[in-house]
């Protein structure tokens, strides 16, 4: 499909390739207490570098990433995006995780990614991989302001959206933006559940 026309307010900007460390730092901070992320990584040390490398090797290359200064970030993929990461990118991510969180974290991450991919709907959709707001900026409405431009663009294009909610506390936030519960599933044996959520365009 053609690229979405996303109208960003002044406080937001589209991230550039050199912003991958910033994206990782924001998402890592936002997800430091996330149940699924803590289960995969075993702690918060590996999160910024891993999320940053995912941005570097996939979401900044083939997706749409937005930044709100140094406080908030999103990573999206559109339906026609190539979701495969290069061999170099895979090694870069895996090596960082192994070095900072251990080889068991790499195995957990790979298992979770495989199950998330298997569960992802076949119908074309915009995929919200992650939205994060730094801890000191949470509760200010920044999450809404980060999410709104892409959802408005999806509405104009008639495009559904999909995400996996990894924290039960965030259900009402996503539901308030039109995402409906599909199912809960374990991304890997013994992991906290993920909630698959789907949003029809308005």
Short summary:
The protein has 202 residues and is of the alpha+beta class. 44% of the residues lie in helices and 19% in strands.
Can you walk through the features of this model?
There is one protein chain. The protein is built from 7 helices and 7 strands. With 202 residues, the protein is α+β, with helices and mostly antiparallel strands. It has one domain: Gcn5-related N-acetyltransferase (GNAT) (Aminopeptidase). It has a 7-stranded mixed sheet with strand order 1-2-3-4-5-7-6, sandwiched between helices. The protein is globular, with a radius of gyration of 16 Å. The relative contact order is 0.18. The model has no long low-confidence stretch (mean pLDDT 95).
List the helices and strands and how they pair.
Blueprint: E1 13-14, H1 20-30, H2 35-41, H3 47-62, E2 64-68, E3 72-77, H4 87-101, H5 103-119, E4 126-133, H6 142-157, E5 161-165, H7 171-176, E6 180-185, E7 194-199
Parallel strand pairs: 4-5
Antiparallel strand pairs: 1-2, 2-3, 3-4, 5-7, 6-7
Helix pairs in contact: 1-3, 3-4, 4-5
**Unreliably modeled segments:** none
Main beta-sheet annotation: 7 strands, mixed
CATH class category label:
Alpha Beta
Mean pLDDT: 95
Q: Which structural category fits the helices and strands?
A: alpha+beta
Share of residues in helices = 40-55%
């Amino acid at each position: 499909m053609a690229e979405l026309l996303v109208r960003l307010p002044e406080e937001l900007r589209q991230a550039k390739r050199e912003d991958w460390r910033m994206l990782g730092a924001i998402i890592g901070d936002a997800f430091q207490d996330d149940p699924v992320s803590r289960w995969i990584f075993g702690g918060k040390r590996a999160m910024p570098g891993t999320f940053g490398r995912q941005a570097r090797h996939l979401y900044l290359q083939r997706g749409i990433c937005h930044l709100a200064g140094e406080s908030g970030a999103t990573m999206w993929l559109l339906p026609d995006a190539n979701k495969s990461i290069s061999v170099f990118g895979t090694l870069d991510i895996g090596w960082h995780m192994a070095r900072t969180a251990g080889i068991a974290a790499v195995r957990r991450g790979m298992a979770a990614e495989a199950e998330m991919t298997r569960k992802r709907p076949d119908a074309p959709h915009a995929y919200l991989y992650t939205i994060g707001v730094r801890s000191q900026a949470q509760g200010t409405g920044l999450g809404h302001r980060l999410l709104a431009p892409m959802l408005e663009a999806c509405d104009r294009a008639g495009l559904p959206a999909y995400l996996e909610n990894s924290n039960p506390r965030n259900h009402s936030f996503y539901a308030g933006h039109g995402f409906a519960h599909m199912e809960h599933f374990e991304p890997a044996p013994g992991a906290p559940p993920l909630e698959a959520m789907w949003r029809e365009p308005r």
